[in-house]
Design a protein that fits this description.
about 200 residues, alpha+beta, two-stranded antiparallel ribbon
């Protein structure tokens, strides 16, 4: 079964790429040695981890281990921009075409050094991705998927005032995507925390 990216657990759909957790503090490997106070530019502190600010977009980076190794490093440090990705020939997946992740298989096979999860404002979030593909995209980007408890803590307090005014409220309507970060009232610490699809 395909999963929608960044869906709230209580909606009955498992979190896919969601807001991925960075490994350790500010890009360092391993668990933090103390309370976090700083995260990469595309993430915020949430409990004992850094979590992406924006609903994830998944990008295919060509020549990730050679020509684009510096782009991959920028992705892993939370410093890549849409312009960086475009300059490197990267293409966003799951934004307009359903299931365009191949050769990265639904099972997560053939995904190493192929697809990367990025937290970027102003892009359509990626969708139609399996949990295994999402995990691979996060792993390639030096991130991981959050646990249910981490996810719940990160989105706690996300405003959901009722009917969607389609301009500022968090987009919680199923099947209606909006660009990441485009809803001004949907900001606490993790933007688009309830999902924009």
């Amino acid at each position: 079964m395909r999963e929608r990216v960044l869906r709230h657990i209580s909606n009955g759909i498992a979190t896919a790429v969601a807001a991925a957790l960075l490994t350790g503090a500010a890009g360092a490997a391993g668990p933090p040695s103390g309370p976090l106070t700083k995260c990469p530019p595309n993430a915020v502190v949430s409990g004992a981890a850094c979590i992406d600010k924006y609903e994830a977009s998944v990008w295919r980076v060509p020549n990730a281990t050679t020509v684009n190794r510096f782009l991959v490093d920028r992705i892993r440090r939370g410093r890549a921009t849409v312009a960086d990705l475009a300059a490197g020939g990267a293409t966003q997946l799951g934004a307009s075409v359903t299931d365009d992740y191949s050769p990265c298989a639904d099972s997560g096979q053939n995904c190493a050094n192929d697809i990367y999860a990025a937290s970027l404002p102003g892009v359509m979030p990626s969708a139609d991705i399996t949990w295994f593909q999402a995990q691979a995209a996060c792993t390639n980007a030096a991130k991981r998927l959050p646990s249910n408890a981490e996810w719940q803590a990160a989105v706690a307090g996300t405003p959901d005032p009722g009917p969607d005014d389609r301009m500022s409220d968090c987009n919680t309507r199923r099947g209606s995507a909006v660009a990441t970060g485009s809803r001004s009232a949907c900001v606490r610490s993790v933007r688009d925390g309830r999902g924009s699809r």
